[in-house]
Write a structure and sequence with these properties.
Length: 193
Amino acid sequence: MLDDWTLNRLFREARTPLAWTRARVTEEDLRRIWELARMGPTSANCSPARVLFLMSAEAKEKLRPALSPGNVERTMAAPVTAIVGHDLAFYDLFPRLYPHVPLRDWYAENPALAEVTAFRNGTLQAAYLILACRAVGLDAGPMSGFDNDAVDRAFFSGTTIRSNLLINIGVGDMAVTRPRDPRLSFDEACKVL
């Protein structure tokens, strides 16, 4: 069992920042985050997530037109914004990532199955990325308020990668954060059969 400090850092007291401090995030930090996040399980180790870490002002400006108005300021202020996408042709890596069973053609010949698998498992990997940020002492602000098509045109044109969500990464200014919104209880959200 993890200790209470760790559980608080990962879950109980972790928040989505609305503002950011000036604390720097380095490429080394991002590599440490990915080294943790990549270890989370996915279906047949399909690992479809692809991440662009936007650190430069130029990269952030390229993203700006795709952002919903309410997300512009916090995204521009964040030290890093991750575009988490999923590769629709993830199955091309099965010979290396899951050599036990020849699954490539199963997905390659069924685009609908490949798309839902990529989206589901890429989303799962985004959640691992959020937890990895928290585990290394950074905060994460996931967002879906953006134009996916515009992001795909700007960042993934000519590829099989599609955007899923954005995650701002840095050290949050928790003095600006609102009180935590309610969560559903076990009895409201779960059932044991």
